[in-house]
Amino acid sequence: MRLKRGKHIELHHKTVSGTEKYLKSILYGGLDGIITTFAVVAGVAGAALGSGIILILGFANLIADGISMAIGDYLSTKSQNEFHEREKKHEKEEVKNYPEAEKEEMVEFYIKKGVNRQDAIKLVSIIFKNKKLAVETLITEELDIPTKEESPVKNAVFTFLSFSVFGLIPLIVYIIHYLNSGLITNTFIVTIVLTAIALFLLGSFKVRITGKNWLYSGIETLVIGGVAAGAAFAVGKLLAGMAG
């Protein structure tokens, strides 16, 4: 913190709002979109098939996997919300029916955090003067459950859009080549470069969630994507004869 003329200036991060709440869905949807689509491109390129085949399989992957990821995100978020709601309801009933037991539970919680028993008892007594505050404290601190839940629908939408938009990157060069074959040569090499840049940038941006070093995170994501693509390319090469 910084003190200036008696005023306390907070240097913490601002409250999360807007699309920032769905940063996880955007990032992981985008990363999965790039990696899986490029793996398809690498596999088909390894088999030495044409741009048309790459586009057909690539777009099929975009739609099918994008929908699958969105549904998975929707169901997991919905299940998590339902579990949280059940725990919140249970905690409200416990505070209402067994307040003394809940007080002691909270006292023990603060003691484990390093607060001495006498101060913990005073703190809990103050908190329990407001039943709503007591319930929220038990939920957020003891159970580690957020007071506001994420929207399953919005999570699914952001995941699908992110998967589709970023997953389109490995296909851009082939779209251009399909429309004008003379405009770009070495399509696979150019695609590798574009995909590598996108993977590194998304991996670097991932630090907004993980808190890791941006360079390490970018390289890590690039390596993971490269391994997946390399495996797909190798399989395409091995099975190239089956396409004939």
* Biggest sheet details: 2 strands, antiparallel
Q: How many β-strands, per DSSP?
A: 2
Task: Give the strand order of the largest sheet, numbering strands 1, 2, ... along the chain.
Answer: 1-2
Strand residue percentage: under 5%
* End-to-end distance: 68 Å
DSSP helix count? 10
The domain count comes to: 1
Shape: elongated
Query: How confident overall, as mean pLDDT?
Result: 82
Radius of gyration: 25 Å
Outline the low-pLDDT stretches.
Answer: 1-18
Q: Find the structural class using helix and strand composition.
A: mainly alpha
Helix content: over 70%
Order of helix and strand elements from N to C terminus: EEHHHHHHHHHH
Describe the structure in your own words:
By secondary structure, the protein is an all-alpha fold. The protein has one domain. It has ten helices and two strands; from the N terminus they run ββαααααααααα. The chain has helices at residues 23-46, 51-97, 99-112, 117-127, 131-142, 152-167, 169-179, 187-205, 207-210, 214-238, and strands at 2-4, 7-9. It has a two-stranded antiparallel sheet. α2 (51-97) runs antiparallel to α6. The radius of gyration is 25 Å and the shape is elongated. Mean pLDDT is 82; it is low at 1-18.
